[in-house]
UniProtKB/TrEMBL annotation:
GO cellular component: mitochondrion
A single GO molecular function term of this UniProt record: metal ion binding
Species for this entry: Camelus dromedarius (Dromedary)
Entry cofactors: Mg(2+); Mn(2+)
Catalyzed chemical reaction(s): NADPH + H2O = reduced beta-nicotinamide D-ribonucleotide + adenosine 2',5'-bisphosphate + 2 H(+); NAD(+) + H2O = beta-nicotinamide D-ribonucleotide + AMP + 2 H(+); NADH + H2O = reduced beta-nicotinamide D-ribonucleotide + AMP + 2 H(+)
Keyword hit for Nucleotide-binding: no
Biological classification of the source: Eukaryota, Metazoa, Chordata, Craniata, Vertebrata
The protein, known as: NAD(P)H pyrophosphatase NUDT13, mitochondrial
Superkingdom of the source species: Eukaryota
Subcellular location: Mitochondrion
Gene3D superfamilies assigned to the protein according to its UniProt record, in alphabetical order: Nucleoside Triphosphate Pyrophosphohydrolase
Amino acid sequence: MAGSKRVCSSNQIIYYPQMAPVVITLVSDGTRCLLARQSFFPKGMYSALAGFCDIGESLEETVRREVAEEVGLEVERLHYSASQHWPFPNSSLMIACHATVKPGQTEIRLNLRELEAAAWFRHDEVAIALRRNNPYTQQQNGAFPFWLPPKFAIAHQLIKEWVEKPIRFTLPV
């Protein structure tokens, strides 16, 4: 009888809130990282791939399935990074991983039911985006600059890790 709980005041039934596990994965081909955006993201924002774990599925299986479903790539290796509770909208546990794709297999096959766009970004492009102070500023040509999730989001941490220190991948999937 430990952990978070709520007690109904009318019938005293105890409810234990559920948490949904979600993998968030930064995919790399060794020199570039793959970032994507959903249609509801603010203009110009790109992030790591993410998806809910299915019942009976391991984290490794979820990473492999989500990357294949969203961008049509096959994960070769992965490395766990960190986790973060994300309370809204449905109390998720974000499990952050770095993944590499098989050499020579970097052609993106975008699933438009899941994503609006996905692209490979060079190290220098991502480093500039991390330093950008005001991502919401529209450029003179009307476009919005490429920018990344805010510092409090685990996606930002994944991307920053990739820029600051290349991960040595040792876990085959």
